[in-house]
Amino acid sequence: MLSDLRYRLRSLFQRHAMESEMDEELRAHLDRQVEKGMQAGLTREEARRRARIEFGGHEQLKEECRDARGVSLIETLVQDIRYGLRILARTPVITSVAILSLALGIGANTAIFSLIDSLMLRMLPVQHPEQLVQLQIRNPQRANGQPFGTFTNPLWETLRDHQDVFSAMLAWESTPFDLAQGGAVQPANGMFVNGDYFRALGVQPAAGRLLTLTDDHRGCAGAAVISYGFWQQRFGGAPGAIGNVISLDDHSYQVIGVSQPGFYGTEVGVKYDVAIPICAAAQFDGTQSRLDQRSWWWLSVIGRIKPEINPAQLKARLEVLSPQVFSAVVPANWDAKGQENFRKRTLLTVPAATGTTYLRREFGQPLNILMGVVGLVLLIACANIASLMLARAAARHKEIALRKALGASRPRLIRQLLTECMLLSLAGALLGVFFARWGEALLVRFISTGNDPVVFLDLSLDWRILGFTAGLAVATGLLFGMLPAFRSTRVSLTSAMKGSQSGESERRVKFRPGKWIVASQVALSLVLLVASGLFLRSLVKLVTMDIGFDRSNVLLVSANLHTAKVAAAEQPAMFDDVESRLRSLPGVISASRSILTPVSNRMWNNEIKVDTPNPPSGDNALVNFNFISPSYFETMRTPLLAGRGFNEEDTKTSTQVAIVNESVGKRFFPGVNPIGKFFRVDPEPGKPAVPIQIVGLVKDAKYDSLREESSVTAYFPITQVPEHAEAQTFELRTAIPPSELMTPVQEAAASVDKNIPLEFATLAQQVDDSLVQERLLATLSTFFGALALLLAMIGLYGALSYLVTQRQVEFGIRLALGAPRRSILRLVARDVVAVLAAGLILGVCLSLATVGVLQKLLFGLAARDTVTLLVSVSVLTGVALLAAYLPARRAMRVDPMVALRYE
Amino acid sequence: MAKRIDLPQGTLDLLILRTLALEPQHGWAISERIQQISSEVLLIQQGSLYPALHRLERRGWVKAKWGTSDNNRRAKYYELTKTGRKQLEVEKDSWNKLAAAVAQVLDESA
Q1: pLDDT at position A534, please?
Q2: Residues A210, A333: one domain?
Q3: Candidate from A2, A8, A26 with C-beta closest to B50
Q4: Residue-level pLDDT at B2
Q5: What is the pLDDT of residue A7?
Q6: CA distance A607 to A597
Q7: Going by DSSP bridges, is the β-strand pair A713-717/A657-661 parallel, antiparallel, or unpaired?
Q8: Is A69 on the interface with B (CB under 8 A)?
Q9: Cβ distance A591 to A730 under 8 Å?
Q10: Is A901 inside any structural domain?
Q11: Pick from A717, A748, A765: which residue ends a domain?
Q12: pLDDT tens-digit profile of A706-747?
């Protein structure tokens, strides 16, 4: 091994010495052989001739010796790279097109992959992340059986104190805080964390100290740990930051320390700024602290499994533990059946080494699909370059023949050609990484739309991404390099030496792989077109469907009177006051207010009970709630179908009433007019369930999402809202662009109370934002579909141009012999049609076989949608004919004289 | 002259090693020696001798140094190393086994 290395090194660095030694050695051998021949009585010339024949080619022998020496690997690589660069520089246009399309392909793949990496694959930067599991709760009642991951504080505390399978546990909730004390909101990403949070993760302080168990107890004063990024950004990384007091929603906390750089919290997609202990949550809640609420589900919980516990033991222990834990924290206000079911809930675990995030559920599948899409784009780009290389290889026919004649072996030539391809793909990859960085930022911004706080993903390059990109570069280089390299080195020396390329038949044969490449490009682009067509049509269906309200020209103004420090008793009157002032603003057609607005990512639902035979139960009895002022339906333009709307006489103390939508009517009162009927809602503990009378019926309107199948909703007068309703949203239907009303609205609100914080949005924007996933898929798949189409057409154009150039002489002769120009066109067209037909058939089969995976992401159409397929096929055919037109025209216009002169 | 036999694949290394086991030699002498000893039966493709020598040198089984030959000419002498000597035993052994096995099969069928 060592001698091997020494030998290789010597031959690498003392190359000249070794070369001359080798020369001398071989010459000496030859001399001796000649002498031997002369001694046997031959003439010097004859002896020399025989010795040479016996010896074989001098240069070839030297090359073989070099190979045996093993150096040549590095040595020839350097040679090949130099030569390859020269060759590539000789055709700058082709080289740039190749590098650019590769860079787009590799860049897109790297961008999507690094998103997948940071969202789904990257381990949390904590100690032994593989030991972490997130705890979830399975509710045996829920039909779909999807476990959920939020805990009440009593449940968390009981679990923490009774479990024996975790060496440490952590619980947290991400929540936004306002750092400002009055005035404009300064948002910060906050976390409530348990005292053991940082120790359990093994996170170290960068300054000061982190929270400990002693910081987290009932009645605590609270203390704040800030993230490294927040420390840098807000305090400039000054050590003096420790001991400072920061204000979170008007509660003051002392900063006690900074967590280590690179730690962003346990929730992927959110970068935490400041963490305070769970016990401090009590300060935000007033009398009914969430610390003791048994049906306030807010904490996420992660446990670190003890090394000696195996998965089976963990599962078994949790099964034993579950009834004990749940029985200890049954919500007192639930009915007997609900309590019994509560005790039957069970704990389970899912791996949490990569952290937790809702983004995975929302974007995991779309990202995987996009990964497939960009993979196809890269394949198409590879195919393009492969046909470019084939065409170029044909042009280098003579060069390759010459080199072969001079003794270059075929593997050696293949290596040379592959080196060129590798250079191309590496250049593409380098450029692609730049594209990727830019694309990733764009993607994250896309995903962030409608998300508050903005999504943060740690996209720093790690070994996985670099490995992925490097692997991609090598794979693509081999992919588009193999075929041309093998084909073009299979030259027959004699035909090449004759100067011109030989007969017609050989030319046709050479085009065949080109044809297949183009056909497969057509097929792959068709798949992409179909996918993007499906996503586009889904999006259009979602955007244009009847959603039960009119989203255009509605300004949404959210106001929080709690933050404005208005006493709870005065809040309703103040909201009324603001609403009437807003209504009288010029440009406002109508104004209303409500607790929730449609498609706002927030919901309020409850089971309702009716006294009909066989009433719906369980999930079927769940109804969405909203509390609205009388003019809500007028402002939203949701038609009232029967009964009455709310009015001034529906007050806090009057009969409890409700307006329901058609779905509620159909589900709870099938075949009966619901107006005048009563229903009841689970009451607060200790209060009787008051019957609520239905006084009106409205058309269905989307509540939580445009994709929801049923929108069973009951509306109640905002005066009869059972809990504190300090945050309400005004809806203003405007006659002018909504944004122009922002200043007048602010002035009107300030005339009531200067401290009311206001947030603005438009209903149209809010609805749009709920379609991020769909829009992401539609936009990106269309972009990549178009890119694929463009690449495929460049491929078709290139292959056809090549064909026409090759057959120019033939066309010339045909024309000279009197063939009509149209017959030349027919010759070319026959090739185009054959390639196109093969590609389309293959593409249709591929599409039908693969689009099934998209079904879940589509809306209102089947994956095997005939219209989409037909449109995609026609678009592709149209564009392909366009791409074929130019070379075909050139073929028709071949000048017989010019063409013949070539021969 | 008896009909010459081309060397079976892989036996050239063994023959070179064996030849060098006697004394250090230069390339031409090695080929001459093999032909002589084998009574001119084994023909060494001169072209394959040198790549083989370079290969052996890389593996560390032989080492080369420049010396002066019989008629006062500079020549590159190859010499067996310690590992080369071991390798020779290994190759000899496996060759003998092969030859014996082949002979056995041939006898059997005869």
Answers
A1: 93
A2: yes
A3: A26
A4: 44
A5: 66
A6: 20
A7: antiparallel
A8: yes
A9: yes
A10: no
A11: A765
A12: 888 888 999 999 998 877 788 899 999 999 999 899 889 989
Tell me which chain B residues have a C-beta less than 8 angstroms from the C-beta of A4. 58-60
Whole-number pLDDT of residue B4: 62
Question: Is A154 in the same domain as A299?
Answer: yes
Rg of the Cα atoms in chain B = 15
Q: Are residues A112 and A188 in the same domain?
A: no
Please give the Cα distance from A20 to A170 (Å, whole number). Answer: 72
**Rounded Cα gap, residues A548 and A662, in angstroms:** 11
- Given an 8 Å threshold on Cβ–Cβ distance, is A55 in contact with B60? no
Q: Is the peptide bond before A277 cis (omega within 30 degrees of 0)?
A: no
Low pLDDT (below 50) residues in chain A: 501-509
- Specify whether A109 is located in the same domain as A140: no
Q: What pLDDT, on the 0 to 100 scale, is given for residue B6?
A: 66
Q: How far apart are CA B2 and CA A900, in angstroms?
A: 61
pLDDT value, residue A512: 67
**In order of start, what are the domains of chain B with their CATH numbers?**
5-109 (1.10.10.10)
- Domain stop point among A302, A324, A353: A353
Structural domain span for residue A6? 2-70
How much of chain A is helix, strand and coil, in % rounded to 5? 55, 15, 30
Nearest-by-Cβ selection for B46 from A3, A21, A55 = A55
Contact between B59 and A54 using a beta-carbon 8 Å cutoff: no
Model confidence at B3: pLDDT above 60: no
Q: Under DSSP, is residue A692 helix (H, G, I), strand (E, B) or coil?
A: strand
Q: What is the predicted pLDDT for the residue at A838? A: 93
Residue A157 neighbours by CB under 8 Å, 6+ apart: none
Question: Residue A518 falls within a domain, yes or no?
Answer: no
* Mean pLDDT for all residues in chain A: 86
Name the β-bridge partners of A606: A623
Residues from chain A that touch B76, judged by Cβ atoms under 8 A, are 21, 24-25, 28
| Model pLDDT, residue A703 | 93
